[in-house]
Design a protein that fits this description.
This protein is an alpha/beta fold and 190 residues long. The protein folds into 2 domains: 9-67 and 126-189, Rossmann fold (3-Layer(aba) Sandwich); 70-114, no CATH class. It has 8 helices and 4 strands; from the N terminus they run αβαβαααβαβαα. The protein has a 4-stranded parallel beta sheet, sandwiched between helices. Helix 4 (88-99) crosses helix 5 (104-114). The longest helix is centred in the middle third of the chain and has 16 residues, at 70-85. It starts with 8 loop residues before the first helix and ends with a helix.
């Protein structure tokens, strides 16, 4: 594995891709990713289509999205400030209050650990290269920009379908686990 604090952006991305390919053992698999994990799965599928049989993206961002929500822009600015200052406790609380206020107690330990990682920056994804079947899921109550991204992914991925998950925000697998699980299982069984 790699230590994200020691590698520059493209090198970290390469190592992440290598680790993911090593984890799947070189055998084609279905990938499921939520939020930033969805972007990582999408990027991996675009760069390694021979290793991905199907793709599930839940509330995934896109690097070239033109963010329009003033609340999100303020959040992103504060998130960057807290990360640069190394105030990871405050950063974790910011993330929890913005993305999952109803799940804060449950997610706090995991969120606190995750905010210290300097994840690889993904600047662009070749959507046309993602030809495998894809399910693009978005929580009905997620932020407007994420709903717009989901609609765009469903339009631009060559073999994608869109599913809106009722009653869910940004983390449908935690907010509506049964509905999300049924949706994903139905898609993957096809």
């Amino acid at each position: 594995m790699w230590d994200g604090f020691e590698l520059d952006g493209e090198l970290r991305r390469h190592h992440l891709e290598h680790d993911l390919a090593e984890t799947v053992g070189g055998e084609p698999v279905a990938l499921v990713g939520a939020s930033y994990g969805g972007l990582v799965a999408l990027d991996f599928a675009a760069r390694n289509p021979e290793l991905v049989t199907a793709l599930v993206l839940l509330d995934a961002p896109l690097p070239d999205h033109d963010w329009s929500d003033p609340d999100f822009l303020a959040y992103a600015e504060e998130e960057e400030r807290l990360f640069e200052a190394g105030d990871f406790d405050a950063l974790a609380e910011l993330d929890l209050s913005y993305w999952a206020p109803g799940l804060a107690d449950r997610l706090r330990p995991m969120t606190r650990r995750s905010v210290e990682f300097d994840v690889p920056e993904i600047e662009a994804v070749d959507l046309a290269a993602v030809r495998m079947p894809a399910l693009v899921g978005v929580g009905e109550l997620d932020k407007p920009d994420f709903r717009a991204i989901a609609e765009r992914l469903a339009r631009e991925l060559p073999n994608a379908e869109l599913a809106v998950i009722p009653g869910a925000g940004h983390l449908p697998s935690m907010e509506q686990p049964e509905a999300t699980g049924e949706l994903v299982n139905r898609f993957l069984k096809r």
